[in-house]
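Contributing: when you submit paired examples, paste them exactly as shown. First protein:
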Amino acid sequence: MKGCGPLEPEDSGRRDMDHASSDEEHDVRNIWTYGHRVGALLGLLVVLAMPAAPLWALDIVNLNLLNGISCTLPDPGDGHQCRVRDRIALLLQHIVAAGCPDLVTLEENVTQAFVPQRTAAGTLVIVGPLDDTVARIEEGLPILAAACGFAYEVVFDPAARRGTPTLGRGIDEEIILTRYPVLASEVMLLYSPLAPFFFRHVLYARIAHPLGPLDVFTTHLAAHSDLATVACGFKDPRLPASFTAPDCPTPTCGAHDTVRECQAKQVAAFVEARHQGPEPAIIAGDFNAEPDSKEYREFTGRDWLDSHRATGHRECEVRTGENCTAGRSDKHLRDLESPTLHQHKRIDFIFVVPPRAGAPYPCVLQAPDGAEGTHSGLFAARPNPFAPTCGAAPLPICWPSDHSGNAATLHCPGPRHNLHDDSTGAGPERVIDRASGSP
């Protein structure tokens, strides 16, 4: 693994990180359900998808991968982590079909081999051995490299690696795949009333993008299972007597905030502290909060753009599942093996911090234009398009996750000698500027 320089962390909750190169070759023949045919299909997809994305565009896709832990509970028909190997194979196909984006952010990765979980009856059981999803993704990187023509670099917190005895980690982790080199990376732990047994966090990387140093953040905020809606500072009586839940982290948060609202404030403050330079910044993830919630407004209230709304997409349609990102069950395989959307809320976002006022070049969010490749909207939001049919094994699985993902393309023209095209690309566009926060 290759080290990266520190960014002067201010407290023990922030950790400088190593990032792994994807240069190593792996034998992946036994990973994918479809064997050697996957590589050939990915190669065909990239030929179709790549020309639509100008080299000077910034493309990103985001997905909550689903750790699949609940599907490993000792109940009939759940499958192993909801067919995690098939789902990761399908994810790689979607990445290539999206034109091999510059950045891929993935939440809810699991690296622990054994994890305690409660059954529907409330009994505490240990589930495992679990597949290490980060290792599985890394084993698939040579397939992506062959299809995309470049090797993705991995940004992941070493403290969450399998075999590292870090309490509270390795159950729900973020990972960044980047086409361009990593200048620095860091993780910040977020407030949790379940600490030190479980943490949420935000993963940060500064990327050496051709347009300039680019700051990228990805996170997964609290759910009901880790007390998202209780008051900040809540003392959970389930914690062993020898442990004391942390106090509400003032002055960022107060007792009037919920746990998740506090985490949103922490993420926003961290972005503001780390983001440097005139280039835009990206915050992607599963925020477990719907549009116009207090958590959502913590970001949009700073004139940061929701890429979905900013490019004119409609809101989530509960009746049909269109434009929604969550709703499928993570407890069983039925929804994942059905071509029906089964989605009913939008809680996953890519927020864009516009270029600073006075930046020499505007940025443009690219809306759909019918071309192949990455555009702002949803990602992996159609049932398996790479197989004639999908369903229960032995058929290919229909979805890579219980979530649908997000996609965004920004055109940020740099100096003319850096460009390979004189235009800003075809299709509807929205110019973004921090000074106004609007077209």
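Second protein:
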Amino acid sequence: MLDVGCAPLTSVPALAHQRCLNHEFREAVARCPECRQFFCRECITEHEDRVICAACLKRLARPAARRRFHWTGVLIFGECLAGVLTVWLFFYIAGRSLLAIPDSFHEGTVWKSKFIDEP
């Protein structure tokens, strides 16, 4: 056997020899770039064009969800307020329009004109 002088790569084990962190009998297919652990196909997912494990995905997604929740409450309140104001404005304009109709329309005297009664 010839010794070429290269040191064996024992520090970084090959992916083919690794097993999933959660399922010890399954072969690993990817390594999470965040936690550097090996996982099988069922334990990883694609997020922002990277393959990442579920635990790291949960950790990365948590701060964004918390920030969004704060503004969500404010937006829902604003939408409800805009809806109530829109309904109020609609009924206000409808009421003012009905009040603008002359009293003679309600009494039925508008329908009796001189031109219709003449022979």
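If you have annotations for the second protein, write them as plain sentences, like these:
Strands lie at 30-31, 38-39, 44-47, 50-53.
The chain has one domain: 15-111.
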